[in-house]
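Task: sequence design from structure.
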């Protein structure tokens, strides 16, 4: 009962994430990203991507806005230390600008990222149709599903899986975390911030970058009946790419449609498309991750 009494409200959870993704300027093109409150062990990859994007956005003047980023993870981040982000202004053109970001902890790079920015303009347009899936109002949240299965969650995973999160996720086809269940390499989930935030679109893009690392890697493991709780399973993001197509709000429902066309050699390749509830394709993602089953 004590832990329930101290559960943060959705607004508090959301503000904590906004604060986490608001990088501090130390000097020209040098920023510091804060630590996840209560974080233990390895830093979530989406946090590093989002903070690196924020550093790049802070170094780029409007009206140019981020349209793509490509990142490589080199070392796991450590929750015991803040992360320093150094921005290099590689190119500044009339229509496009390119930024390179190096994320560092204790003097060693943990991530390299390149981001591109464009001055808004009109052009030819087409998009893939949104998958025909149930809407978010008809689905249970991941938090509800996990609390329903609390008795089957091993004690060592319980605190992590049941903690309150700033992003609400509603899976279309809930998966089993602790039983070997083989499924086709595709999954769909709705997500949004737990509470509304202001109209700063750089923050909305940072939140989407953060959330885009939540579902991709697990998609490549679905056909094999394994996940991160499987004994001797080692997983980690190796690289991450994200393209922003259209405007959106991260505090409104977004559908993340993920698939994995290939896995092999202890790596899994994953793709994702992100749609608004009214069917606009607003972002695309791709990621290759380590999926090593140790003997």
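Answer:
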């Amino acid at each position: 009962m004590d832990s329930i009494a101290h559960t943060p409200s959705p607004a508090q959870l959301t503000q904590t994430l906004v604060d986490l993704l608001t990088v501090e300027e130390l000097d020209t093109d040098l920023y510091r990203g804060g630590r996840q409150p209560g974080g233990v062990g390895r830093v979530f990859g989406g946090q590093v991507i989002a903070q690196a994007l924020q550093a790049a956005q802070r170094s780029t003047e409007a009206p140019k806005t981020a349209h793509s980023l490509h990142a490589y993870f080199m070392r796991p981040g450590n929750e015991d230390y803040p992360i320093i982000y150094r921005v290099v202004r590689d190119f500044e053109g009339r229509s496009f600008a390119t930024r390179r970001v190096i994320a560092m902890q204790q003097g060693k790079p943990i991530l390299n990222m390149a981001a591109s920015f464009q001055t808004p303009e009109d052009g030819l347009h087409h998009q893939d149709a949104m998958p025909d899936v149930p809407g978010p109002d008809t689905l249970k949240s991941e938090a509800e599903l996990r609390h329903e299965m609390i008795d089957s969650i091993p004690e060592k995973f319980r605190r992590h899986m049941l903690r309150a999160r700033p992003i609400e996720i509603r899976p279309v086809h809930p998966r089993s975390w602790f039983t070997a269940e083989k499924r086709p390499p595709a999954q769909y989930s709705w997500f949004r911030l737990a509470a509304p935030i202001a109209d700063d679109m750089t923050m909305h893009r940072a939140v989407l970058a953060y959330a885009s690392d939540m579902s991709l890697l697990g998609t490549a493991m679905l056909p094999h009946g394994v996940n991160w709780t499987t004994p001797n399973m080692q997983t980690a993001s190796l690289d991450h790419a994200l393209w922003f197509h259209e405007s959106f709000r991260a505090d409104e429902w977004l559908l993340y449609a993920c698939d994995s066309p290939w896995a092999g050699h202890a790596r899994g390749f994953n793709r994702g498309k992100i749609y608004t509830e009214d069917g606009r394709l607003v972002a695309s993602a791709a990621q290759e991750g380590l999926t090593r089953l140790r003997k």
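The first helix runs from residue 2 to 5.
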